[in-house]
Amino acid sequence: xxxxxxxxxxxxxxxxxxxxxxxxxxxxxxxxxxxxxxxxxxxxxxxxxxxxxxxxxxxxxxxxxxxxxxxxxxxxxxxxxxxxxxxxxxxxxxxxxxxxxxxxxxxxxxxxxxxxxxxxxxxxxxxxxxxxxxxxxxxxxxxxxxxxxxxxxxxxxxxxxxxxxxxxxxxxxxxxxxxxxxxxxxxxxxxxxxxxxxxxxxxxxxxxxxxxxxxxxxxxxxxxxxxxxxxxxxxxxxxxxxxxxxxxxxxxxxxxxxxxxxxxxxxxxxxxxxxxxxxxxxxxxxxxxxxxxxxxxxxxxxxxxxxxxxxxxxxxxxxxx
Length: 321
Fold this sequence. Notes:
Blueprint: H1 3-24, H2 45-64, H3 73-86, H4 98-116, H5 122-139, H6 154-166, H7 175-187, H8 192-199, E1 206-213, E2 216-223, E3 242-243, H9 256-266, H10 276-281, E4 290-291, E5 305-308, E6 311-316
Antiparallel strand pairs: 1-2, 1-4, 2-3, 5-6
Helix pairs in contact: 2-4, 3-4, 3-5, 4-5, 6-7, 7-9
């Protein structure tokens, strides 16, 4: 037997044994007990309500038009027009906006597929955006009003921190709640999706390390961003690491990493570091970095937990809490 044939036989034998292991550990002998329905990611609570609302409207539409089928572009266009003519935007009190109608139609197609376990043809779904932006916009007409972006200025930020720490007359049972709020204020940037990601983060979603910068030790923190809105499977997901040293250096009350460290230490999240002194004394080998490992019992816990009068819970904060 040639060397190539022997290698093929070994691989085949190994694969057969691997399959036997799977069968022995519970793999069904056939696939008859497995449903053929597609599996979708769980919706955020706020999205669930919006998806449910537009789907209820579809049910009403279906009662009026029993033959309606969103897989046919004529019906989906007609339903989009029904949405547009029955919706009033907060930005324009007279009519719906193009963006709002697009969001509602997209929410509907997604929810319809979830509910029926069927797929709306891609060319039908893709045709809706230009249809709403051009044809429907001029037919009804729709408003092109968009919410003007607003930015948090340094003065705004300073006043918010001062209010939280000096002029907030709420009686906090746990000062940790105030620390959490201040920390979220520091790391809230880029978008609401970014804030949601941070609020829902568990320790296993974070990577904390000690490295070197300009011959001095520096702590860095990075969100792994496993669930990145619209880019879940994209290896080029945006990353926004948090650094200890910034140039120019902000005042300590604005240093996000300092406040995050206080949360990590108070909740005994590190495997080896119990105090701030322990953390600040940590060193990586010269020119290299060292991972600051999390305690095993902290990995599945949320970084920002809801608090009750009895203390921390295992429930993560939401972006609106």
